[in-house]
Amino acid sequence: MAERSEPARDPEAVSRFVEHFAAQLVEAGLQRMPARVFAALLASDRGVLTSAELSEALKISPAAVSGAVRYLAQVHMVSREREPGSRRERYRVHGDQWYEALTNRETVIKRWEDALREGVTSLGPDTPAGRRLTETLAFFEFIDREVVAMMERWRAHRAERFGRA
Amino acid sequence: MAERSEPARDPEAVSRFVEHFAAQLVEAGLQRMPARVFAALLASDRGVLTSAELSEALKISPAAVSGAVRYLAQVHMVSREREPGSRRERYRVHGDQWYEALTNRETVIKRWEDALREGVTSLGPDTPAGRRLTETLAFFEFIDREVVAMMERWRAHRAERFGRA
DNA sequence: CCTTAACTTCACAAATTTCTGAAAGAAGCG
DNA sequence: CGCTTCTTTCAGAAATTTGTGAAGTTAAGG
């Protein structure tokens, strides 16, 4: 038998990590299945798993995998790719996963900003409440700008430490 | 009748804003009642409302107010104060609300980091999965540091624009 | 084209969450 | 101290969410 270059994986240790990390994500507001699927991908060797592998590893139905993956793709936390010459779909976490996720969170903040602007207008900019909303809006606008710069710094930091673009 | 210095509030406009903004917060993962209570406080003149006022404005039972406020206080999005010489409790959003909320989110990230460190150890730092987890961990550690600096910049920015410490 | 493997959609059963009314618990005020 | 007012806790009804099996859809491979 050919020698494997990487240590063997302990499925139980993997599962323990997956469930533990997923639980933290759930606590932060992510739904259960998306959280588990995402954690499983994160803990996989290549960062890629097929639907069948996820179904097997997490003991959930293909339908559940489908739903979880649809959600994760929508918020750009995984990408889906078709294995060439096969009906198998593969789901991948990429290196930019968190960048993407944060960028997506930004669009959430945009909607908050819209709601706040509407509030300022309808309550009146010169009312006490209007002023509070204005300040809140200013905070989010500030964050928007800062996060862009921050992510650029992260890319530089990562390139230096992990040596890729 | 003495003249009021502030424009009168249109309860319907307030309610529209409250429900709309709360809906955005819910979509971002907050529970419904905490979201509505928070939005109501944000849209109030003084940033302070009593339990009874919240109950009345949102058409929910005192029990629901109690539960929502307990949660919001726990994550530092409102503070509770006792009106001196009364059994009435007052709930307040302060200017530091978002700072506090973000700081709190940081403690969530700390738990993610713990889970990741555990994963790196149990999967092995030299496995492909271990390396991916290590990079993810590095990202969060980076964010931790950056957010602290960012919030300092916000305080300066706010002081300049809104003129308070 | 037809077959078949793989994913998705849909309706529903189960589990969970949410909110309420009622009872219990604090705390001011007489 | 006990009365009264407000808040919290608790058990349960109602609504929502979640995950499944089964049928439906898509596309590869003969």
Automatic annotation (TrEMBL), chains A, B:
Residues 29-89 form the HTH marR-type domain. One of its GO terms (molecular function) is DNA-binding transcription factor activity. Pfam families: MarR_2. Transmembrane segments: none annotated. Keywords: DNA-binding, Transcription, Transcription regulation. InterPro entries: HTH-GbsR_regulator, HTH_MarR-typ, WH-like_DNA-bd_sf, WH_DNA-bd_sf. This is DNA-binding transcriptional regulator GbsR (MarR family).
